[in-house]
Design a protein that fits this description.
The model is unreliable at about 5-10 (pLDDT under 50). Helix content is about 20%, strand content about 25%. Among the domains are: about 5-60, Uridine Diphospho-n-acetylenolpyruvylglucosamine Reductase, domain 2 (2-Layer Sandwich), CATH 3.30.43.10; about 70-175, Uridine Diphospho-n-acetylenolpyruvylglucosamine Reductase, domain 3 (2-Layer Sandwich). Strand 9 and strand 10 form a beta hairpin. It contains ten helices and 22 strands. The two termini are about 25 Å apart. The structure holds flavin-adenine dinucleotide. Flavin-adenine dinucleotide binds near residues 45, 81, 108, 119 and 166. One of its GO terms (cellular component) is membrane. It comes from uncultured Mycobacteriales bacterium.
């Protein structure tokens, strides 16, 4: 079905897929049969990736019709792979449980998000996949296997870019529910970024937004986890900026009411940690995204390096976001082995012009050995990408074992793994 856009899932999708068709199995048994008879096949989540990571020349499989599973245990939840975060957070909250973090949008599937290393912000918060304790997947021979934390292959089996098989269910670690207060400060002082530890250590999750057009930072979105014994009255000024008088959107000119409440009042974790509300199109809709992870110690210098080329990327840049992500042990995670600062870019939807701008960003960040987000647009050569992770060869060997005929491979995984 050449030209298929993943907008089937309410998202305008940047990628025109090369896949023949989209299969929608109704049971795991049916899925096993589809895989066993396939020459090339690949799972599709909600299609929110901007890179060609999900594409295939064979069949795409949507798991949206598999029997839904949201099984809440004492300190875990097991969900069917196609479940969107926005569908699991409510039942968890009702059961008095929570996840450690969420990405900027609740619209994405749990399996799709984990497969690319999707993350939110927070010095103490690793990527969403770091909460996974077990993965159930159909391997290339059509066999259903479960890999659990503690198994030697586990660290390679979570952020696996869909290369090891089609994940049917994931188990994630949960914690007691908590409330979060969110406030936004704008017109921050030019030197706000210099105290990286002070800025990002000030709350559970902090995002800075900037257009890189000058030395200054635009906004700080502060998500503070409520400590029941210590009430927090958000100050009116912070980092040289003032509290926004009304709801803000990250992208200038977009509607603030599409974002989660920024009124400073405590609310359940899932109503404050994402930037975007489930009932609206997240972000701008018509856009392209890129993101690069650098080791935390290079964070300030990396931001300054992008500011130095700000004028060159300004025509394509809608907004940039700076977040922190804690290190994890998942081989292909963007924060594998290093506490990280993530520099995100929301671009206009103009692929050639954006690729040129991305090239400028990559050149500016090269001294800091940036890792590109697997689900977003990057242009750096494959051999450069391969130097950024030291376990890609192990993932390749794991893929050869799970998928000897290479049915889950695509151009993207062939190139970068
Ligand atoms: C508006 C917007 C905001 C975003 N914000 C963030 C953010 O805050 N943080 C961040 O890190 N990213 C963000 N992203 C990127 C997004 O989170 C990732 O691209 C994510 O992977 C998308 O999940 P998906 O369900 O759409 O997966 P898809 O894009 O459909 O697929 C992604 C990968 O997962 C694989 N996959 C999907 N399902 C399965 C399965 N069942 N088994 C095996 N493999 C599977 C696919 O084959 C593919 O390789 C954002 C994207 C958009 C559009």
């Amino acid at each position: 079905m050449t030209g298929l856009r993943a907008g089937a899932m309410n998202w305008g999708g940047n990628v025109a897929f090369a896949a023949r068709r989209v299969l929608r199995p109704r049971s795991v048994e049916e899925l096993c049969g589809m895989v066993a008879g396939a020459d090339r096949i690949r799972a599709l989540g909600t299609g929110h990736s901007f890179s060609r990571v999900a594409d295939t020349t064979g069949d795409l499989v949507s798991l949206a019709d598999l029997p839904p599973r949201v099984e809440i245990g004492t300190d875990t939840v097991t969900v069917s792979a196609g479940t969107r975060f926005g569908e699991v957070t409510g039942p968890l909250q009702a059961a008095g449980r929570a996840l450690h973090n969420l990405g900027s949008l609740p619209h994405i599937s749990v399996a799709g998000a984990c497969a690319t290393g999707t993350h939110g912000s927070g010095d103490g918060n690793p990527c969403l996949a770091a909460a996974v304790t077990a993965v159930e997947l159909v391997t290339g021979t059509g066999e259903l296997v479960t890999v659990r934390r503690g198994d030697p292959d586990f660290p390679g089996s979570v952020v696996a870019l869909g290369r090891l098989g089609i994940v049917t269910a994931l188990t994630l670690r949960t914690q007691p529910t908590y409330d979060v207060q969110q406030v936004v400060y704008e017109d921050l002082a030019p030197d706000a970024i210099e105290d990286l530890d002070g800025v990002f250590g000030a709350a559970y999750s902090v995002s800075l937004f900037t257009r890189y057009t000058g030395p200054g930072m635009g906004m700080a979105w502060v998500k503070r986890r409520v400590d029941p014994g210590v009430p927090w009255l958000p100050p009116q000024t912070w980092l040289g900026g003032t509290r926004a008088p009304e709801q803000r959107h990250p992208v200038p000119g977009e509607r603030g009411d599409e974002c989660t409440p920024q009124d400073g009042l405590p609310g359940p974790w899932q109503t404050r940690l994402p930037h975007f509300r489930l009932e609206f199109t997240p972000s701008k809709g018509e856009e392209i995204q890129s993101e690069f992870f650098v080791a935390r110690e290079h964070g300030v210098a990396a931001v300054r390096a992008v500011q130095a080329i700000g004028a060159r990327i300004a025509p394509q840049l809608l907004v940039g976001e700076i977040r922190t992500v804690a290190a994890d042990d998942l081989w292909t995670s963007l924060a594998y082995g290093r506490d990280s600062v993530a520099l995100h870019f929301t671009w206009v939807r103009n692929q050639p012009a954006v690729e040129e701008a991305v090239g400028h960003v990559e050149a500016a960040l090269r001294p800091f050995e940036p890792r590109p987000h697997w689900g977003k647009v990057f242009t750096m050569p494959a051999d450069e990408v391969r130097t950024r992770w030291d376990r890609l060869g192990d993932l390749r060997r794991l893929a050869e074992r799970h998928d000897p005929a290479g049915v889950f491979a695509n151009d993207f995984t062939d190139r970068y793994l």
